[in-house]
UniProtKB/TrEMBL annotation:
Name assigned to this protein: Sugar ABC transporter substrate-binding protein
Annotated transmembrane regions: none
Signal peptide limits: 1-22
SUPFAM superfamilies per record: Periplasmic binding protein-like II
Native source organism of the sequence: Saccharothrix mutabilis subsp. mutabilis
Length: 442
């Protein structure tokens, strides 16, 4: 059991699961009520598996060499949120975390991150404006520093496609046709019916099925919720969203081109289906390029923007922010680390991870994707992010929307006889209640 590194006043007590957090983040520095201690451990967490953790470790070593500030680094993947909640409840948060942009609303709502004065961050003007938007809360204030950006792309087994004489898919019809061919025409040539077209990580854990499906909702012109001025309205039951979900269910129930067990499959387990030759199409993040290049072979698969749906090309835009956590006794070093990580040199280093870059698309506009990667696939990602990708909305807390949508979609896809429109209507009523509860209903 760790000894608490900081002393937080009763008024600044962090509240998670019934404990209320308020005063820890009353200033842009986040440290007005916390005694500063330059000798306290400086703890940094990232949501990382082994390969990206090595890249982060080198970045933090470079930071120490440059500044003399030693980082107590903890890469965590399993139960990241649970462990963070436990530390918040004990009033002993890490000093900095690097986590996805979608977690911003939850962190703000629980008082775990203070408001950030964007103009006080050295190098803030070098960050592309679109990345800054992902660090902005529903109240228009900033609560993180952008670190990395990305858009989901579609990976296809090139060797399978060429063997079967199929063209690159341009639209949903082409994609479904290719998935059916991969499932029924023995693309690996082993004489066994053991390949599938679509790899879907359909678990409801962390709302991941909604993550995967959101790109297809966008391609149909639908969404989970949509902006309505400075408020939002529910869009999951719109005609466009219904069309997208019906198309997805067709992959599961009609053509049966999805890998078995998809609705309980998490991302870590899903990757193996693609690299081991069990699935031929995978809509996922570009952070997988390095792993698949090594385990499958760069020549065996290709990367394309998602084929167009009825409303055109669309994809989920994501990224990671640097969150300067409330209650830190090392406020100056929090900002110093953030400023280092957004510098052009650190951004380039983060892109050069041997298997998994921790900076996917740089947020620093002085770093050129083509020059660093020298890989046309990343140019595809960059163009998609710029032209056709859309992030989850900046609601006070998007997690309930993501989680309820994942659970609703999981139920629809698990039972092929359900009424898609009716079930999405029921889901929409729940989401409307959540919008109202957050004060965001239009």
């Amino acid at each position: 059991m760790r000894t608490s590194r900081r002393s937080v006043t009763a008024a600044a007590a962090l509240a998670v699961v019934g404990l209320v957090s308020s005063a820890c983040g009353t200033t842009s520095s986040g440290g007005a009520q916390v005694q500063q201690d330059p000798n306290a451990p400086f703890e940094v967490w990232t949501r990382s598996t082994e390969a990206p953790a090595k890249v982060y470790a080198q970045l933090f070593a470079d930071f120490e060499q440059k500044t003399g500030v030693k980082v107590d680094y903890k890469p965590i993947f399993t139960d990241f949120e649970k462990q963070l909640q436990q530390r918040a409840a004990s009033k002993d948060l890490p000093d900095v975390i690097i986590n996805d942009t979608g977690s911003l609303g939850t962190l703000v709502g629980q008082g775990l991150v203070p408001e950030l004065d964007r103009s006080s961050v050295v190098g803030n003007g070098d960050i592309v404006e679109r990345a800054w938007e992902s660090a902005k809360g529903a109240d228009g204030k900033y609560y993180g520093v952008p670190f990395s950006a990305q858009a989901f792309v579609t990976l296809i087994r090139k060797d399978w496609r060429e063997k079967l004489g199929k063209p690159l898919p341009r639209n949903w019809a082409d994609l479904a046709d290719l998935a059916a061919a991969f499932t029924t025409r023995d693309p690996d040539g082993d004489g066994q019916a053991n390949t599938y077209g679509m790899l879907v990580p359909g678990t409801t854990d962390r709302g991941y099925l909604a993550w995967w499906a959101s790109s297809y909702l966008l391609q149909a012109g639908g969404d989970i919720v949509k902006a309505d001025g400075d408020k939002y309205s529910v869009a999951i039951d719109s005609a466009e969203s219904v069309k997208a979900v019906e198309w997805i269910r067709g992959l599961f129930c009609d053509s049966k081109v999805v890998v078995p067990g998809a609705l309980t499959l998490n991302t870590n387990d899903a990757h193996a289906f693609f690299e081991s030759g069990k699935a031929g199409i995978y809509h996922t993040g570009p952070y997988m390029f390095g792993r698949f290049d090594q385990k499958l072979g760069k020549d065996k698969y290709e990367v394309i923007a998602p084929p167009a749906g009825p409303a055109g090309v669309g994809s989920l835009a994501e990224g990671e922010n640097i969150y300067l956590m409330a209650g830190s006794p090392r406020v100056a070093d929090q900002k110093k680390l953030a400023e280092f990580l957004i510098s052009a040199g650190a951004q380039r280093a983060g892109m050069e991870g041997e298997t998994q870059p921790v900076v996917r698309l740089p947020v620093n506009k002085n770093v050129d994707v083509g020059t660093v990667y020298r890989d046309a696939r990343w140019n595809t990602v960059a163009k998609l992010y710029q032209d056709s990708a859309k992030p989850f909305p900046s609601l006070p807390n998007f997690q309930p929307f993501r989680q309820q949508t994942a659970e609703g979609l999981n139920g629809i896809l698990a039972t092929c006889s359900t009424d898609v429109k009716g079930d999405l209507g029921k889901l929409a009523e729940n989401l409307k209640e959540e919008l109202a509860a957050q004060g965001m209903a239009g």
